[in-house]
From TrEMBL:
It comes from the Eukaryota. Pfam families: HSP70. This is Similar to Saccharomyces cerevisiae YBR169C SSE2 Member of the heat shock protein 70 (HSP70) family. Keywords: ATP-binding, Nucleotide-binding, Stress response. GO terms for cellular component: cytosol; nucleus. Belongs to the heat shock protein 70 family. It comes from Maudiozyma barnettii. The keyword ATP-binding applies. Transmembrane segments: none annotated. PANTHER family: HSC70CB, ISOFORM G, HSC70CB, ISOFORM G-RELATED. InterPro entries: ATPase_NBD, HSP70_C_sf, HSP70_peptide-bd_sf, Hsp_70_fam.
Amino acid sequence: MSFPVGIDFGNMHSVIAVARNNGVDVLINDVSNRSTPSIVGFGEKQRYIGEDGKTKQISNVLNTVDNLQTLLALRFNTPDFDREKKYMNETLIKFPNDFVGVEVNYAGRLQQFSSTQLVATYLNHLKIMALNDIKSEIKDVCISIPVWYNEERRVALMDACKIAGLAEVTLVDCLTAAAVFYGLTKPDLPELKQKAKVVGFVDSGHTTTSFAIASFHQGKVKILSSDFVKGLGGRDFDRAITEYVADLFIEKYKIDIRQNKKAYFRVMTQAEKLKKVLSVNKSGQLNIECLMNDIDVSTELTREKFEELITPIVVKKLEQCIALTFKRARVESLDSIELLGGSTRIPLVKNLIEERTGIKLSSTLNQDEAAVKGAALIAAKYSSTIALKPIKFKNVLAQNISLYWDKPVPGRHNSVELFSKVTHYPVIKSIFIEVSSDFILAAHNGKRHNVKESISEINHNLLGSWKISGIDPKKHMAKKSEKIHVELIVSCDVSKFVHVEDVYVTVKDSSKSDGKENGLPNYRRIEHLNVETLPISPNHANLTKWSQLETVMVKQDQLVKDTEETKNELESSIYSLRSKVEGVYSDLLDSKEKQYILKLVDNTENWLYDDGEDATIEEYNSKYQKIKQIMNEINTRQ
Ligand SMILES: Nc1ncnc2c1ncn2[C@@H]1O[C@H](COP(=O)(O)OP(=O)(O)OP(=O)(O)O)[C@@H](O)[C@H]1O
Ligand SMILES: [Mg+2]
C-alpha cells in the first residue's frame, strides 16, 4: 500500500511527513532528526546530501551547495541574484537563459550542475528516506513551497520532481499547507452558516517571512490574502551578527574574515547558534578556535545589541507585509495569529507581530511541522489510497491571468482576461473567443493587453501554451463573417498551474434571441477540437539526460556506501578471528592451523592498511568471505 507523503521544502531544512493510521507521522532521518538540511555536497567519490552535506560543509565549503530553495531557477542579473550571491560559496556558472548553475569538484574532475539537478538530487534523497520508511512505492506527494515561488520556479520544481522520480506531485505554499492542517485539526470551527473564524499565519524561516489571513468553517479553508518579504529570515540575522563581529575582529585580532570564505562561513555558523541562545538568554558567547592565522577568537553579544543589529532589517518590512495582507484580505481584525518557522522564536520578531497586528499570538500549531503535516494531508486528499475527513480549500491568485492567441480574426483583439487577481483557485471556467483557423493559445500572468506582434514574443510570465487544431474554416466559419467561435474550458489547479481542459467549435443558438444565457454567450458546441500542451520548461530537452545522470550518481553513492560497509566488516572479522584463535577456537585448532590462520589475518590486516586502503568492493568481499568461511568451518567443530 502506498501512503501520501508531504514535504516541506525549506531553504535551511526540509521535513517529510506521511499520512497513515488516521494521523500524520513526521519521519526521522538517519541521525534521528525530524528535519534534514537542504544541502548537496560533492566529494572525491560520492555526494554528501542532507545531514552528510552539513557535517562536511565546513571542510568542503566550496563544493557544498546550500540554499537550494532560493537557488532553484535563479537567474543572473536579477534582484534575487543580488541578494543571494552573498550566501553562495560555490563557483557559480551561467546555464542557458541566464540561469545560475554551479561548478564543483566531484569524482576527480570539475563538473557542472544546474539548480534543477541539485534540487532533484536533494528530493531524491528525501524520496529514498521516505521509501525506506513506508516500504512501498510513493505515489501522491504534496510539496509545500514558499509563497513567493512564481511559475518559473514551480515549473523548475516539477522538473526536479520528475528527475527524482516523483510522479503525482501537488505544490502548495507553506501557509496554505499550515492553514489546511489547522482546518483539519481544530475542533471548534464554525458551521457553514455561521460567521467564519479568521486566523492569521506568520511564517518566518531562514530566508523569507510571509503572512496569510485565512477564513475557516468546518471542512472549509479559504486564504483571503497573503504577502511575503524575501530577505527577512534567520539567515539575514546570522549575517548581521557576522558583519558586526567581522568589524570587531579587524580591530581586536587584526584579521579580516571577509577575505576568507571558510572563516566567514565558520562565523556565520556560530552566529546562528549564538542567535538561538539569545532567544532565551540576555547575552551569549561566540568562540571559535583557529579561525584565521591560528588565532582563536571570542566575543560576547547581548540580546540588546542583537536587536539593535536586526531592527533595521525587520521592522519596516514586517510592518509593510502585515499592512498589505490586512488590506488585501479586507478584514479589520483576526480571531488569532499562529506562528510558524524557526525565526518566530526570536522575541523581537514575536513582539513586533503582536504589536503591529494588535492580536495575541497563539502557538497551538507545531511551528516546525504544521506545514509538512498539512502537505501530507493535502497529498492524502488527492490520493485514492487513504480516506480523509473531507476538506475544501482555496487560495487566492493575487495576480491576473490572461489568455492570448494567434490567428485572431482580422481587426479583432486577440486577448482576454481569464481570471482576475481576486479569483480563488482551484477553479475552472468556460470562456469564448473568436479565431480564424487552428491557433496557438498562451496564458500569461498580468493584465490583458492587445498584442500586435506574435504572441511568442510575450515570453514574460508564461503560464502555459497549447496548440489547438481540428478547425475546418470552410465548415466552421460563421456565415457572412470570418469568425469561428470557440469555447475554451480552462482551469487553474491546486498547484496554480493553468490547463486547457477542452476546446469546442460553437455556433450561436438561434433559438435564443438575445444571444446570451446567464450572462454567457448562448452558443452550442458542435465539434471537439484537439489540444496539444506545449512544453514551457526551458529544461524540457534535458530532463531525460539529467534523470539518467541522477540514476548513475545514486548508484555510485550507494556503491561507495556499500564498499565502506564491506571494508568495515572485513576489518572487524580480522579482529574477531584473531581473538577467537587464542580464545574460544583454541581447543578446536591444532598448532599448524593456528599458525596458518594467524598468518592469514596478519597478511589481510597489512593489506587493508596499505594497498587495500582504497580497494574495490569485490576485493574486500572476497577477503571477508574467506575469513567468514574459516570461521563457519571451525564453528561446525564445536
Ligand atoms: N530558537 C531559535 N531562535 C532564533 N532563531 C531560530 C531558533 N530556532 C530556529 N531558528 C532559526 O530559524 C531558521 C530556520 O527556520 P525554518 O526551519 O522555519 O526555515 P526554513 O523553512 O528552512 O526556511 P524558509 O522558510 O525561509 O525556506 C534558521 O535561521 C534558524 O537559525
Ligand atoms: Mg519554511
